[in-house]
Design goal:
By secondary structure, the chain is α/β, with parallel strands linked by helices. It is 39% helix and 15% strand. The protein is built from eight helices and eight strands. The strands form two sheets. The chain has a five-stranded mixed beta sheet. Strands 5-6-7 form a three-stranded antiparallel beta sheet, with helices on one face. The longest helix is centred in the middle third of the chain and has 24 residues.
């Protein structure tokens, strides 16, 4: 699925569906872009996608001047996956088994993936109880804070730096920056197999067709 997100970012209207193309590969995107004329390709300033490396290589080949980025949904999804992996790893390390009813970390598995301001007081208390139940649970708390900071970064109006690897061994690190006018300039996610990606709000040129979103079923 190929979508023009420029109207959404500019605030001028909804996204425009450009095409539906079967397949999920670098060749699919390369062929689609090659079928467009040079004027069309020159207007593409940002290509936003999930973490599939094939899309990145196709965009680099067909529209080399465009910036390839990971869309916010997949950035947050990646962080949530890392949080789950961290919880499962610490669960296995501290108990020797997978999560069971009554295990502190298993009890907060859903609360960990909920935005903090949406949690009830009971859920917040359960989170804190689980975090302090064992020294090794500190890694889960750190990863949870990183995920919440990443989500909140889209609402921030100042530069925020979250250090990499501080108490977490599961490969999650984020750097969030804001431009002079407050737009989110970059979100750098350090993860094996996924290239660092900028958020698609840093637009030097916001003409129609400047932002192309590529999405495909796994």
């Amino acid at each position: 699925m190929l979508v023009d997100l420029t109207p959404v970012v500019d605030g001028t209207g909804p996204a425009r569906l450009l095409d539906m193309v079967p397949g999920r590969s670098a060749k699919v995107l390369t062929d689609w872009l090659a079928a467009r004329d040079q004027v069309f390709r020159d207007r593409i300033k940002v290509v936003t996608m999930d973490g599939f490396a094939g899309y990145d290589s196709a965009a680099a080949k067909a529209v080399p001047a465009a910036r390839t980025v990971m869309d916010p949904f997949h950035v947050v999804h990646l962080a949530a996956d890392k949080l789950t992996v961290c919880r499962q790893r610490v669960q296995q390390y501290t108990t020797g088994h997978r999560g069971r009813s009554g295990d502190p970390l298993y009890a907060i598995r859903r609360a960990l993936l909920t935005r903090e301001e949406l949690l009830t007081d009971k859920q917040k208390a359960r989170l804190w109880k689980a975090f302090v139940a064992h020294d090794a649970h500190a890694a889960v708390e750190v990863t949870y804070r990183l995920c919440q900071g990443l989500i909140n970064a889209y609402d921030l109006s100042w530069t925020s730096l979250v250090p990499r690897g501080d108490g977490c061994e599961d490969g999650l690190g984020v750097v969030v920056e804001r431009g002079a006018s407050g737009e989110l300039v970059s979100v750098d996610v350090d993860d094996d197999g996924v290239d660092p990606a900028q958020c698609p709000h840093d637009l030097l040129d916001r003409r129609p067709g400047a932002i192309l979103q590529v999405a495909g079923d796994r």
